[in-house]
Design goal:
Elements lengths: L2 H11 L2 H4 L7 H4 L2 H6 L4 E5 L5 H8 L3 E6 L2 H13 L5 E4 L12 E6 L8 H14 E13 L9 E4 L2 E3 L8 E5 L1 H7 L3 E10 L6 E9 L1
Parallel strand pairs: 1-2, 1-4, 2-3, 4-5, 5-8
Antiparallel strand pairs: 5-10, 6-7, 7-8, 9-10
Helix pairs in contact: 1-6
The structure holds S-adenosylmethionine.
Length: about 210
Amino acid sequence: MAATAVEAWDERWATPEGRADWLVPHPAVAGLVPVLKARGAQHVLDLGCGVGRHALFFAEHGFAVEAIDGAAAGLDFACRDAAARDLRLSLRQADADTLPFSDESFDYVLSWNVIFHGTMGDVGRRLAEIWRVLKPGGLFQGTMLSKRDVQFGRGRAIAPDTFIRGSDPKAHPHFYCDLAGLAVLFAGFELLSLTQEEQRRPGSWHWHILVERR
Ligand SMILES: C[S@@+](CC[C@H](N)C(=O)[O-])C[C@H]1O[C@@H](n2cnc3c(N)ncnc32)[C@H](O)[C@@H]1O
């Protein structure tokens, strides 16, 4: 597991201030519900669910939801929020590198701002796991960091296109890619939609990706 990334998020999820920006579903994710319904999707995995904003949203819309994260504090908050809203879903602590699910389990896997913490090899392994647990024709929606991001190239390079920012030796790695990198990483998928979006801060460029498992 990219342990340092999970540790940093675990600390953040433990406080109301840390959670504050991560409680409302992203419009691109919320907007996929009609598409999923039209395709007859039922089984959904939120990989790296954080405090559960998307997992609970999908449960609210009637999907059968599994949600995993490495950070216990986020799962704990999601569990309490689900109980308060009377929502049913499965939440468990697990690692994106070895998903605890059988092959071809899900119609849709979401991993929003998660899988890029690591090297290109780490990202490739996670995408192979996502491909494995998706049914043929299932959808993956997620984000990657773009080389257009203002942070690209800043900090300590630990592998090609992978940087650790700040002086904290435990700070977590970020992998950035361009179109050519995406083509390699997503070779097992059919591209349905790809945009570059600034998230939260100016210059914070992310790829927003929707693909179908071949
Ligand atoms: C930026 S937060 C995003 C949370 C959620 N996807 C959202 O959009 O609200 C990243 C989350 O991914 C989790 N994470 C990062 N690397 C992980 C890994 N290798 N395995 C499991 N969870 C991981 C972190 O613990 C954190 O909760």
